[in-house]
Every structure is written in C-alpha cells, then in structure tokens.
Amino acid sequence: MQSPSFSIYDASAGSGKTYTLVKEYLKIILSSPKNDAYRNILAITFTNKAVHEMKSRIVGNLSEFAKDDPSPKAADLMEDLSRDTGLSIIKIKTKSQQIIKHLIHNYAAFDISTIDKFTHKVIRAFAHDLNLPMTFEVTLDTENLLVEAVDAIIAQAGEDETLTKLLIDFTMEKTDDDKSWDVSREILDTGRLVLNENNRNEILHFQDKTIGEFVEIKKKMQALCKELEETNEGLATKAIELIDKNGIDPKSFSRGTFPNHLESIRSGKFNPKNKTFHEFDDIAINKTAKDRALIENIIPELLQILKEVYQNFEKRDFYKAFLKNITPLSLLNTVSNELAKIQSEQNVLSISEFNAIIHREIQNQPAPFIYERLGERYRNFFIDEFQDTSEMQWQNLIPLIDNSLSGLDDYGNKGTLMIVGDPKQSIYRWRGGKAEQFIELSKEEVAFFHHEKKVKHLDTNYRSYSEVIEFNNAFFQLISTEFTNADYKDLYENHSFQNTNSKKGGYVNISFLPIAEKNEFIDDEEVVEKSDLYVLATLNTIREVVKQGFEYKDIVILTRKRDQGIAVANYLTEQGVPLLSSETLMIQNASEVRLIIHLLRYLNNSADLESKANFLHFLSSTKDLSMPVHDFIALGMNHRFEKEFEEWLVTFDVSFSFEDVRKKSLYEAVEIIISKFILPSEGNAYVQFFLDIVLERDIRNQSGVADFLIFWDKNSDKFSIPSPEGNNAVRIMTIHKSKGLEFPVVIMPFADEDYNRKPKDKLWLDTEEIDLGVPKALVDNSSAVESFGESASAVFNLKKQEELLDNINVLYVALTRAEEQLYVISQSLKAKSDGEYPNNMASFFIKFLIHEGVYEEEKLSYEFGNKTRLSKITRTVDTVKSIPVVREVLNPKNIKIAQREALMWGTHQQEAISYGNIVHEILAFVKDKTDVDLAVTKAIENGLITYDQVDQVLQTLREIVNHPELNVCFDGKDTVLNEQTIVQKEGRILKPDRVVFLENKQAYLLDYKTGAVNAKYQQQIQEYQDAIEDLGYAVLKKALVYIGTEIEVVNL
Q: How many whole angstroms separate alpha carbon 846 and alpha carbon 313?
C-alpha cells in the first residue's frame, strides 16, 4: 500500500514517537522488492542517543522477526506490519532474515544520523569545491575560537589606525557611561551574532560595510539626536509662550505640573519616565483658577505640540539605543574575517558554520549532483524532533526532499517524507530550533511544494500513569490562556490534551515553600537561604519517595539552570544520597586530576607557591606522616630552592626531578606525574579521561605545559566522564538534557522562576522610515523599545510571546518526563493588590490550584492521586564493572616482534622453502660482502628472523657471497641494483634479484630461487638478459642460485 508521500506526525510527549518512526521505517524496507532498501532512506534525528535508540530498535526488531519464536512485543508489531503492508507473517520473517544479512555487511549505508553528522557528510563531499582542505577537523568549541578571534582583534590595536580609533572611542563611551572599560565582552557578543544563524538575514545587510561607513552612520545619528533635541526645545518654548501670550497664570495648573513639564523639555532635562500628557483631561487645572476657560481653549493646541515632541523623543531614544550597539556591530566583519583566518590556520571548521556553508554553496546545486557526490540516492526521508531543526537546516534539506517526492523510482513508487515533532517541546530557539516552523507546516492549508500532505496526531500517552497525564492535561489547558499569540494559544489549548493508557493511578504533588517573613535586618544572606530551603525540601521528597518502595535510580531531579543542579548535588552528597550528574562526574573535581594540574602549574612557574602548597597537601594525604599536615606543608614551603626541595622529598620516598620533567613533552610529563604520585590501585576513569584530553592537545596543537594550562583554565568545566548506566543513584540533570528521556519519579525544585526577567537579548528593528544606510538596527531588548513606534512595539511583543512560549515549553518538557510520580516544589506568593499574581512560574501553579478549587493561602502542599507505588518492584543488581588498571609503563626493550615465516621452520617440506625465502629477502639488503652483518641486524628488526637463528643465517649468507662462482658479484667495486624494476616498451614489468653493472657496458645477472631446480626459471632469467641487453649492456655471466639447506649455483 502506498502511504501518502508527505506525512506529519504531531507527537506529544510519551506518545510512541520512536515506535511510530521505527514502524514506518520497517514498513518501507520490508515491502520493498530489494533487500537493501535501507540504503535509500535517510533518517535524521537530534541527538546521538536518539540515533542509537532508533538503530538498535530497528535491528532488534528485525532480528526478533527472523526468529522462530519472536517476543510478544515483536509479534504484535509483526501483526501490525502484516496488516499495513499486506505481507504474510512468513514473508516478513524470511525478508527480515535477508535484510539483516545484508545490513550487517553494509552497516555504513544504514543511514540514521544526527542532522549535524549529515551536514558534515555533505560538506566533506564538497570539500574540494569549497576550497576546504580534505583533512579539516570539526570543532564543537566555537566559543574558544571566538575568544581567540576577539583577542587577536584587540591585539591589532595600535597597528590599524581606523580600528585603534574605534576601540579607543568605544572604551571612552563605556567609561563615560560608568561601565567597565573592557570592550571585549561586547565584541564577543557581536561574534556570537555572527555565528548564531537566527541573525543570518539581518547580518547580510552589514556584510559589505567597512568600519568607515559605520562611523559615518554613527555621526549621522548623533547629529539627528542633537537636531531632535533642539527642535523639541523650540516646541516647548512655543508652548510656554502660548501660555504667556494668553495671560494665563502658571499657578492655575494643578501643582504647576504642566508648566514644569514644559520647562524640563525646554532645558533639555526631559525624563521619559515622568508623566506625559496626551488627553484633554491629563492637564489638570486648579478648581479655583479664574482663567479656566482660557486654558481649556488652548489645550488642543498644547496637546498637538506635545504630540510632536513625544514623537521626536521616541525617534531620539531609538537612535540612542542603536548608538549603544553600533560600535560592536561595526566590528562584525572584522570578527568574521578573523574567525575565518584562525580556522584556516588551525585546519578546523566550526560546527556552527556547517549550515551556513551548505546554504551558501550547495543548496542551489541540482539534487542529482548532490546525490552523486554523496554516493547515495535517498528516496525516503524521516525527520525526527522537527521542532529542533533550524530554519536553515530545513532549507538545506528541501532540494533533496523535493527531488525525491517529485520523481518515481524504478518500481513506480514516489519518494516519501515523514516528519515527527512536537512544538510544545521546542526548547532550542537559541540555537535556531523554532516551534513556528512545525506549526506552519502542520496547518492544513499550508502546501509544501504541491505534495499531498497528511497530518496525524498521536494523542495517547503510553509513558505516564493516568494521574500524571490528567494533571498535565488540565494544567496546560489552563496555561494556554496566558498567550496572546493565536498559534501558541491554539497549541496548548487544542493540542496538549492526551488520552490515558491502561496504566491507571499515579501521583502528583505540588508543594510551596512558605513566604519568608521580611525584617529590616535582611541582607544578602536571604538569597542563600531560599536555595537552602529548596535543597532541604528536595531531600525530604527523596526520602518520602524511597519510603514508597522506589529506589534511588528511579528518581531524577530536574533543574532549569546548571548551578541549581550543583546546589542540590552538593547538599545531597553531604547527606549521603548516592548521585549521578554531569557535575559529580566533572573531571576537574577529581583530586588526582587536580594534583596533576597543580604540579603542571608549578613546573610551568616554580614561583607559583599556591600550586606548590596544594601539591604538598595532596602528598600529605597519601603518606603516613608523623607530623600534622600543616607542619608538613610549611616545611616543604621553606625549601625555596628546587634542588633542596627535591632532596627533602626523597626523605618521604618521593624521587622526582622537576628539571627532567620540564624537558619532556606535555603527555610524557603527565604520564611521569601519574606514575610517581597516583597509585595504580586508584587508577581511575578521571585520570584516563584526562590523559586522553592531554594527548589530543599534544598531538593536535603541539601544546606545551603553558599552552595546556591556558586551555584548561578556559575549558576545564566542559569535561565530564560519561555516566555509567545501572548505578543505583539519584540522577540530576537540566531540563534540556532530559528531553526525550523518561523516569519513574520526577522532582522539580526551583519552580518559581521569574519568566519575565529579560535575558540579554538584542532585537533587530526596521529603519525604513529613516535613511541611515542600513535597513536594520540592533538594540537591546528592554521595555523602552515599546515606545520606539508601532513596528518596534510589535517586534518587542512578538519577542515577549516567544520567550513565554519557550519558558512554558521547558515546563512542559519537565512535567511530561514522569511515568508514575511527579513532585513540583515552588514558592508561595502573595496576590498583588489587584488580585493578580506576579509574573513567575509559581503563579501558574497557584492559578491552576485556584481553578481546581483547592487553593488555600496557608496550605503548602497539594496532592492528586495516591502516593503508594504501583509499578512492579525489580531489585537492581549493580552492573557496573570496574576496568582493571594497566600497572606499568611499557619499556620498548621488552617488546617482541612477531616473526613471519620463521614460525613455520619446524616442518620439513616447508623448511627449505621458507628458509630460502627469508635468505632471499635478506639478500636484498646486501650490496657487497661487508653488508652481511648489517643485513642480519635489519632482518631481526623487521621480524624476519629471531636471535637464535642468527648463526645459521649468517653462515648461509657468507657461503653465498664467498662462493667461488659468485664472489665477483659481491666484491663491491661495481654498481649494484637489488630488486630494481625494469619497465619494458610493451608495459611488462621485470624485477631481477641482482644486477651488477661493470664499467664498460657489461653486466652480471643473478636470480635467487628456492625449492627444486625448475626449467621455467631458465626462461625467466633469459627474459631478464634480453631486457638488460635492450638497455645496451652485454651480460657476461648469468646464474640461478638455489638456496635451501645447501647452496647450488647453476651457471647458464
């Protein structure tokens, strides 16, 4: 059955998304006449974990289908597939066996990959056209490249005149504004704009602008600001004169507010935050004023003047906002060029440029050409997690997809595209993932290249128990009213409802921390206490959950920010709760790694006393000292001279020469430190991982100790060892990391985030009405933008809605991870005087409880469902196996080389042949008699013979070179060519074993043979003779030398 060529699955959390993808994938490969249909399928997903999951499910299912007795789950899927494809169960079984066989032999063509890996593949295929070196490496560390680029730009100050002037002016502006003079942060932000594809279209407008042009724009805006202020002063004077001219007493205005307002505008002291006057009634007149009628008469005219004044101020504020950002923006191209330069010097390509390169260079190529380069032609496309695919990544895929959907393959089938996603789980806007893209595509009326399209909603949740599902249904239904944007509202109002499955029951708990009573002595301590209350509540929740029969490994704690996770982790570790989180697995926290770093710092700079003290502190923990630790450190610190220090260390059984280690390469130095100070019994994963990092830096960047330390200071917090599965420990992760995973019990503390606090975002505003020479202006995102005119206000409000959507999406991801129990820990809030609650996440939960009719201000905990455990209890066995440690460093002298032929010397018929072959090979090293000993040494090095065979081989070689028939060939007077190739006219290649050229165009010719005498060898040596005579030499002597246990020479 031909499925529609384009289907979109809107799959809410836990609705069997992967199952659907796998099923559709299996349908295609099982119903195709070929066994390698998987070659024509490209499945793209977002994370490596998802790739692994999908691959293993497909292969797992195929291998189950191929069995005589498939598992119940697989049998159900087979029934499903049989219904959908019309294939019999037997046919599915045999087909699966054939596919599996095929797939294992061509596993590389089994194309399920992340979007980045696919773009990487495309770029590799086009490297030559893009002028990229074929060997380029991909770097994920864009931030470091940027920092290098910014440092390089600042270092150019003093050389390039325009740049220097710009940087000095910028520094002055910042200090005038009472900000730090350090400009590198702003320039870094500009660099991030360049690399973040969300700004791609805007940045294009600035690409051909020079610093000089930006300076012109800046001057123009400064002049415009001044002009507007002067105009307004004139208008204010006009208004004041109007009042005077009519003989109105300024005191007739209530409190003199209005005249003061005009005066402040006239003297240039206008503050936009002050009251402004727009309506007739805004201008208050004293009740007792005698000239009320006169005033009321001129109010329309005054308001008219003021309207113009306010509009001018709006324009001025807009210019000022742009002026704040124009200097870093003018360095845009400088940063881009510097980045390109660094990347080509280091032969790397930043992953953030992948999509842009394809977009620029490859997207316009005809699809068949791209396929030809890739070596595959895809007919079927699967895109998972579509809400995280950025606009540019989607645009890059369209030509390929459109090509396959339009044409038919050899069997008359159209290509297919299946997109799966959930806009409610779109939480990667900052790296280009936009929910709007999915929302647009899934609207019934939006066509995609005239291909018929089917939108399907997977709306049953198979993950969670009914209480959790029902809570989320009601909660997100209510939250939908927070949106003003119609699409977003519709998303949560009409697409967040899920049907429950057969798992009934479950438990949801919402608790609030009490409001901290404010007193006047409060200082910064209060902030700390709040997070302490959260971690304490988290610990109590964990204990409560464990009482219900859950194990530690069933529990996950989700936090929005990393530092919240660290706070929880530190506290729980103190309380003895076993934990797994990327923080607890950070390499830089391991004491052994810290020791290595302290020692490297000391090696790099022996005056670094802090590192020396830290090193001694570590040493004290590994030795049984007869003195207090402090005294030991003090004693060590007293030895100022390195030699003395080394001698003193020897008294504690530590022999370590700092000078020797300094001479070693980075990797060797670290290896020596490890072998000296870290006991093999403690050889742990952290040290191994650290060694890998060191090795990579050493090989790729040839970095020494100093370079490595700079690298480590910047990046040490990025390295953590992968967490072992199967440990019975509570997991802590950020909500972003938890996406796509599920856990029996989810605890979400810190659920009181203020989602209205502005992240440091920038907005792009249109400058159509004013001719600045650029169509877009970059301003900081703040509420002031609302007053820059209508279009600016619209941009601002859209951004606000997007931020709200992103925040609610993060909440959605967090609350839908739970299978059986969900605990939310928030902060109670007092309603404001108008009955509204402040804008923060806690207010969502309070509004929900009010809506359910259960909220009481004093009550701090609310339960839905019953907290007794329902799922079956399975005891865990710790499956983590420790890897034994390699105890000694290799000594090259102990390395034995495996012999080749020598292994066969025991058997008689083989013996003569293989011995002959080996001697034959060794003879290639022999030019004359004096080379025999050297040749034997080489043979040992190359693994041709072993030490105990040396005498026998030497004897044979001496026999040959001193043989009465042959010694003229080995006397060393003439030119010798061993195994030299002769290419004949007709293209044949000959390789005589030994040719000796005498002075007067004469030659001797030898060929070594093994085994029995054979007539065909004579013919062969005759060919050699002909070839040499063709070269113009006369062959005086030619002989076949048979090498076995005896030497036999046949002169011809």
A: 41
- The per-residue pLDDT for range 699-745, each reduced to its tens digit, is 777 778 888 888 888 888 777 777 666 678 888 888 888 888 889 99
CB 266 within 8 A of CB 235: no
For residue 117, what are the contacts with CB-CB under 8 A and spacing of at least 6?
none
CA dist list (Å): 151 to 144, 334, 342, 968: 11, 12, 12, 71
Q: How far apart are CA 1007 and CA 1025, in angstroms?
A: 11
Decide: 558 and 738 in contact? Cβ < 8 Å: yes
Distance CA 479, CA 77 (A): 37
Q: At what angle do helices 908-923 and 950-961 cross, to 10 degrees?
A: 60
Residue 1043 CB contacts under 8 Å (≥ 6 apart), including other chains: 915, 916, 919, 920, 956, 960, 1008, 1009, 1010
Q: Distance between CA 715 and CA 587 in Å, rounded?
A: 11
SS3 1016: helix
- Counting Cα atoms < 13 Å in the Cβ hemisphere of 641 gives 3
Mode of pairing for the β-strands spanning 975-978 and 994-997: antiparallel
Q: Which residue has the higher pLDDT, 895 or 58?
A: 58
Alpha helices in 442-549 (DSSP H): 466-479, 486-494, 525-547
Q: Is the separation of the CB atoms in 1043 and 1008 below 8 Å?
A: yes
Q: How far is CA 73 from CA 22, 77, 500, 935, in A?
A: 13, 6, 20, 67
Give alpha helix (H) positions in 734-852.
Answer: 735-738, 790-815, 841-852
d(CA 375, CA 367): 12
In contact, 131 and 138? CB cutoff 8 Å: no
Q: Tokens in use for 942?
A: 């190359």
CA atoms within 13 A on the CB side of 198: 16
Is residue 255 left, alpha or beta, with left meaning phi > 0 and alpha meaning psi from -120 to 50? left
Determine how many CB atoms are found less than 10 A away from the CB of residue 828.
Answer: 18
pLDDT at 904 over 50: no
Q: Locate tokens 């189950």: which residue?
A: 64
CA distance 852 to 899: 81
Residue 266: count other Cβ atoms within 10 Å of its Cβ: 18
> Which amino acid, residue 301?
E
3-state secondary structure of 415: coil
**Token pair belonging to 225:** 């600001």
Residue 253 gets which letter from DSSP?
A: B
Query: Across the chain, which distance is largest between two alpha carbons, in Å?
Result: 145
CA distance 669 to 600: 8
Sign of the Cα pseudo-torsion (967, 972, 974, 978, in order) = positive
Condensed to tens digits (0 to 9), the pLDDT of residues 764-799 reads 877 766 667 777 887 777 777 777 777 788 888 888
List of residues 6+ apart from 598 with CB closer than 8 A: 611, 612, 614, 615, 618
Q: Report yes or no: 508 and 865 within 8 Å, Cβ to Cβ.
A: yes
Q: Tell me if residue 741 falls in helix, strand or coil.
A: coil
963 vs 1006: CA distance, rounded Å? 13
Q: pLDDT tens digits, residue range 725-738? A: 667 888 888 888 88
> Residue 975: helix, strand or coil by DSSP?
strand
Range of lowest pLDDT (400-404, 426-430, 893-897, 916-920): 893-897
- The Cα–Cα gap between 376 and 46 comes to 21
Tokens of 507: 């438990």
Strands 555-559 and 743-748: parallel
- Three-class DSSP category at 242: helix
692: its two tokens: 């890998």
pLDDT, the chain, mean: 80
What is the average pLDDT across 743-756?
84
The DSSP output letter for 362 is I
Give residues with Cβ within 8 angstroms of 526, minimum separation 6. Answer: 516
